């Protein structure tokens, strides 16, 4: 492995490490959005039931 390849590999590793917290945050936000979507679906179902009574 020459110097350029080593530098490139080191730079890629650095970029990945810097972006890891963002990736974790995105995973958390995605999970929260899925939970909200489920809650909205339940509310919508309840609303429809109430309207039919």
CA-CA gap between termini: 73 Å
Secondary structure class reads: mainly alpha
Helical stretch tally: 1
Helix and strand element order: H
**Range of strand content:** under 5%
Domain module tally: 1
| Biggest sheet details | none
Task: Count every beta strand, where a strand is a DSSP E run of 2 or more residues.
Answer: 0
For this entry, what is the oligomeric state of its chains?
single chain
Mean pLDDT: 94
How would you describe the shape?
A: rod-shaped
Radius of gyration: 23 Å
Coiled coil: 26-53
Keywords: Coiled coil
Question: Could you explain the architecture of this structure?
Answer:
Residues 26-53 form a coiled coil. Keywords: Coiled coil. This protein has 53 residues and is mainly α. The chain has one domain (1-52). The chain has one helix and no strands. It has one helix at residues 3-52. It is rod-shaped and about 75 Å long. It starts with a helix and ends with a helix.
């Amino acid at each position: 492995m020459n110097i350029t390849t080593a530098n490139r590999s080191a730079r890629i590793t650095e970029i990945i490490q810097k972006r890891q917290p963002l990736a974790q945050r995105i995973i958390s936000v995605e999970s929260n959005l899925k939970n909200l979507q489920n809650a909205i679906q339940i509310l919508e179902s309840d609303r429809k039931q109430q309207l039919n009574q």
